[in-house]
Amino acid sequence: MITKKNHNTVDLAQKIRMDILEMTSRGNSSHIGSCFSQVDILAVLYGAILQVDPQNPRWENRDRFILSKGHAGASVYATLAECGFFKTDKLLTHYQDGSDLSGHVSHKGIPGVELSTGSLGHGLGVGVGMAKAAKMDGKSWRTFVMMSDGECDEGSNWEAVLFASHHKLDNLIAIVDYNKIQSLAPVAETLALEPFADKWKAFGWQVKEVDGHDHDALTDVFSGLSASSGKPTVILAHTIKGKGVSFMEHSVLWHYRSAQGEEFAAAKKELLTK
Fold first, then answer.
1. Is residue 104 within 8 Å of residue 70, measured between CB atoms?
2. 99-110 burial: b if 16+ Cβ within 10 Å, else e
3. What is the share, in percent, of the chain residues with pLDDT greater than 90?
4. Is the pTM of this model over 0.90?
5. Which of 43, 96, 170, 229 gives 20 to 30 Å between its CA and that of 128?
């Protein structure tokens, strides 16, 4: 059974960005830049690729999605709400006292969230376990794991990378939101990753590179994945931190800052003109 609903993914991404701006401003929470960099990927996944059912979030044959970069949880909450997993009104409670929409993504009571994350370097390992379990049970569903580039500093990821290729988990897709900026400085100045693609290839993975804001290119890459390649796949999605609001783009400042007052008004005006 396939129950995913096709959306206009560009329109969906626009709605998600507006939600995130409102949510992070109301809650005075961080990570809007990290959220904006991955919005287009989420819109394509939930709007056109993932086999999921908003009316039956625990459908046993659903694809699994894990946000390993849990600090960007607002973007997942907004995506799920806009796709019908829960009412969009609930987004206004994000990061408020007593809300179950925490700053780092939580699965507790939130339809569609598979795993609570936040401490980096754990999502891929859990995803590897899910993919291995699906293989052992003869199931056809796939596991997608969204990672940050800075998160690839964590050694636990490379243990999971080794395990996945050894067990030929071609039902596992890792996506790296490669925006080149981590919490305090550029990735290249913190702990350089390049030659990044070659490292994944050396570990036995199939590697795809794509513009993480080009919806057609993203759709083509995701649609073209082989279920019988014998290799796990990593998609290196080249993105821009803060994508969508000019004064947030390429800026480490917006890893922690939330838009208030004139900044909020300017960001909203710019998003509305897209």
1. yes
2. eebbbbbbeeeb
3. 94
4. yes
5. 43
